[in-house]
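User: I'm writing a short report section on ligand binding and want a predicted complex to refer to. Could you take this sequence and zinc ion and write out the structure as tokens? A short remark afterwards would be nice.
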Amino acid sequence: MLLTQLQKFYIVDAMNVLLVFIVGACVGSFLNVCICRIPAGKSVIFPRSRCGCGEPIPFWLNIPILSWLFLRGKARCCGRSISPRYLVVELLTACLFTALFLTYPFIPNFVIGCVFCSILTVVSFIDIDTMEISDALSIGGMVVGVVLSTIFPSWYSAQISSDTVLDHLDALVYSIVGVASGSGLMFWIAILGEMAFKKEAVGFGDIKLMGMIGSFIRWNGCLFAIFGGCLICGIIALPILIFLKVFKGKDFKMSGEIPFAPFIVVGSVAYVLYGQDLIAFVCGTGY
Ligand SMILES: [Zn+2]
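Assistant: Sure. The structure tokens for the complex follow:
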């Protein structure tokens, strides 16, 4: 059967999407390594991955997503269970990359989106594990954000052709203002939180993280991320707290230790993927 022009077009599109999904899964596999090693201060490149028992993992058992499914979450060498989180991070990264690819057809913008979402993924999972945000990710990410925004003004202007010196300077200034406004906003949330709860509600790590987010998505993105993050935190955390309060009664004590970063991260990713659409939807105008 002869393929029509349209069918060929869809096949090429589908192949591209599949390729991006596979690349995303491979990057997710690397992010897993970062999540394990960065808090311990180890190199993320050397040595090669080993099983908990010390056996090196051969490459055919290190294929993103597929290996975990094939092994059903049990190491072949010693039968220890492999955390399903490896699978979750690989799938999540693959899906994020695919969604970014469909949102940003201009390749440099797609790559910047991938870098931003990768840093955020690592930050969230480390924050869930350790309640800490590494400076390598927040301050290092901030530098990456400022540099990439300056080199590719198209990332924010939505005009692919923006390439004059003025465009680059404009992007640099906006990115630095993003750092200042993001961390500033979080700083005031920390002060107000401390006044309200009489203890530290937001840490310095969150302030630096918000600076990193600002370097990528500027002040308006920060507002969206914080507002969205609080909203999601409320929607998810409140029913759980009420459930625990009702079922555990007097035994239930509010420890107050909820990692806040993952919620801001979800808000930031939502902004990068659907921010303009969501704002237009809420405001009822073409923003
Ligand atoms: Zn083993």
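A remark for your report: The chain has two domains: 12-99, 104-287. The chain has nine helices and no strands.
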